[in-house]
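User: I'm curious whether this sequence folds into something compact or stays loose and floppy. Could you predict its structure so I can see for myself?
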Amino acid sequence: QVQLVESGGGLVQPGGSLKLSCAASGSISSFVTMDWYRQAPGKERELVARIFKNGSPTTYADSVKGRFIISRDNARTTLDLQMNSLKPEDTGVYYCTVLMYNSNRYWGQGTQVTVSS
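Assistant: Here's the prediction. I'll summarize afterward.
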């Protein structure tokens, strides 16, 4: 079983920055990918960034390339998302998720990010 808890969301002005963190606990070592997704009001949940355990290059949605950075702290089993140059369209609930080798996927409860002046 894996538990994921996101933190770091909030209200920020356009052009500002936020750092989201996801604390993972449980049997996290057998993961395939760790991702950040987001869901804007009235829209489907979308993949924002992905990191692979096997060392494959991280991937980003086109809309966040060059502005967001995903990283993982192995020692603390945390997954971070540094978000820079935020835009109003980045507003949404951000979710941390992990895909395990047994095909189970676990989700956190989400953290709200609002970009507004």
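Summary: The mean pLDDT is 94. The two ends are 40 Å apart (CA to CA).
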